[in-house]
Design goal:
CATH architecture of the largest domain: 3-Layer(aba) Sandwich
Number of helices: 9
CATH superfamily of the largest domain: P-loop containing nucleotide triphosphate hydrolases
Largest sheet: 6 strands, mixed
Oligomer: single chain
Helix content: 25-40%
Number of domains: 2
């Protein structure tokens, strides 16, 4: 059955519109429902963390925002404009590649695996996007990249290739590279899970610094409960493709209201 798109606004209007909105978003693979009518607003400058068991739909949320996954229903809005759709003759229709590229340029993502270009130095990795995609002059791109490498504590490694960097150092370069594109929204997908325990702190400290220094909107998926509690404005617990419970970190971790949330937190905290 074709969805009635007239129920969705062509763009979000008014004061205090969310930076990201998932409205009735559905994702399925055949009969397997991964996300079931997801409704979630993320305010500008807010840090939201998604936790939950494997298969609950956490990473799918990020992949849909990066348009690495198509959605089967609903609409995703970024900065007031639809990401997944565009206006045609006064109604929303599936977005074309040019529209998706324009809206997606407002989003940066750091993956679990760093995905740095192996043949480029740390500085070249950061400069590539601003030069090739944004059309920034090389000098300006270099200045921006050096500023960001300095912020993540990697300016002295600017001439090193990824193979000469530790996992934590590569992840910090990956964060600088994403920020070089000047996104309004930053997505972090398990950015510490591929790292040795002793270097997790250096990456989490960088993300803390971003929260303090930039008015970025951030959406993070993590298994690091202490980090989620420490850094988030809000934590969403996903279960079976839906938000089971969401609250401020202190409330969710210390006084969860739903039985599934309690079971998950007990299991995770016991294993740590």
């Amino acid at each position: 059955m074709t969805e009635d798109m007239s129920q969705y606004p062509l763009r979000l209007e008014g004061d205090n519109i969310p930076m990201v909105r998932f409205q009735n978003v559905r994702k399925s693979y055949g009969s397997l429902v991964v996300l079931d009518d997801l409704n979630l607003d993320i305010d500008a400058g807010e840090m939201v963390t998604i936790i939950g068991p494997s298969g609950s739909g956490k990473t799918t949320v990020l992949r849909m925002l990066m348009t690495l996954e198509t959605i089967n229903g609903g609409v995703i809005y970024v900065d007031g404009e639809p990401l997944t759709h565009m206006e045609k003759n006064g109604v929303l229709v599936p977005a074309n590649p040019a529209h998706i590229r324009r809206i997606r340029s407002k989003i940066g993502m750091c993956f679990q695996h760093f995905n740095l270009f192996p043949h480029m130095t740390a500085l070249q990795n950061c400069m590539e996007g601003p030069v090739q995609v944004l059309g920034l002059p090389k000098k300006e791109a270099e200045e921006r990249s050096m500023e960001l490498l300095q912020m993540v504590g990697m300016d002295e490694k600017r001439d090193q290739h990824p193979s000469r960097l530790s996992g934590g150092q590569q992840q910090r370069v990956a964060i600088a590279r994403a920020l070089a594109m000047r996104p309004k929204v930053m997505l972090f997908d398990e950015v510490t899970s591929a790292l040795d325990p002793e270097v997790i702190g250096e990456v989490t400290n960088v993300i803390r610094k971003l929260v303090d220094a930039h008015n970025l909107t951030m959406l993070m998926v993590t298994h690091q409960m202490g980090f989620a509690k420490d850094i988030s404005d809000r934590v969403c617990f996903f279960f079976n493709g839906a938000i089971e419970e969401q609250a401020a970190p202190k409330d969710l971790f210390e006084n969860p209201q739903r039985e599934r949330t309690q079971q998950f937190l007990n299991a995770v905290l016991e294993s740590n």
